[in-house]
Specification:
This protein is mainly alpha-helical. The protein contains two helices and no strands. Helix 1 packs antiparallel against helix 2. The chain is elongated.
């Protein structure tokens, strides 16, 4: 069970880092930026659902 929390913690740190980098994306890459954000939060959802099951 601790490995799930470690995975979640590292995922949150990675997402925080990626969010800082997304600020610098050009405005013409809006679709790519939204897809990256969607996938990041979907990853957290999947980790939580795995922990619950």
């Amino acid at each position: 069970m601790n490995s799930n929390f470690a995975l979640l913690n590292n995922t949150k740190k990675t997402i925080a880092y990626i969010n800082k980098q997304l600020i610098n994306y050009p405005k013409s890459e809006v679709v790519l930026k939204h897809n990256i954000e969607k996938n990041m939060y979907e990853l957290i959802e999947l980790i939580f659902s795995y922990s619950i099951n």
